[in-house]
Amino acid sequence: MMIDANRSWLLVVDIQEKLVAAVHQADQFVENCAWLVELAAMVGVPIVFSEQYPKGLGHTLPRLTDLAPAAQVVEKVHFSCLSANCLPSELLSQRKQVIICGMESHVCVLQTTLGLINEGKEVYVVADVVSSRTTHDIQLALARMQQAGAVIVSREMVLFEWLRQAGTPQFKAVSARFLQATRPAV
């Protein structure tokens, strides 16, 4: 099964002001997330940001929300977005594929992923855009999500599956923005 831009949406879990500094390689993690959010916005894939108890933990990093001003922001106190019943019903009913990234891998991302799988969704966890405080927890979470039926992917896998073909104006714009800047000159 391939990721389809017309059937998928991006869920960015809890990348919040007071939490992000504690995760493994926080700066790179945030940059990877910004890359994915900007890509989704460019190709027209709906984006949802979840926030765990924002009153105490702050809001989603402006670095991310500024890239997707049309994105929905939902609040929760449950670790799982499904248990919190905060996800937009139109996306849940109309789009079968969920691309998920965020933190912490072994808590909110894991529990949300398990809930989405239980609801019959095709869940794609972007391995280079999830984080926790320890690499051990990241590895265990990815393994458990995969065992439960999630597909583990990279940012570039998502990009190429959303685009499907080279040579289009969209591919040229995306390639110039996301691929040529990240590849060494040959």
From TrEMBL:
It holds the Pfam family Isochorismatase. InterPro entries: Isochorismatase-like_dom, Isochorismatase-like_sf, Isochorismatase_domain. Residues 8-156 form the Isochorismatase-like domain. Gene3D superfamilies: Isochorismatase-like (3.40.50.850). Signal peptide: none annotated. CDD domains: YcaC_related. This is Nicotinamidase-related amidase. It comes from Chitinivorax tropicus.
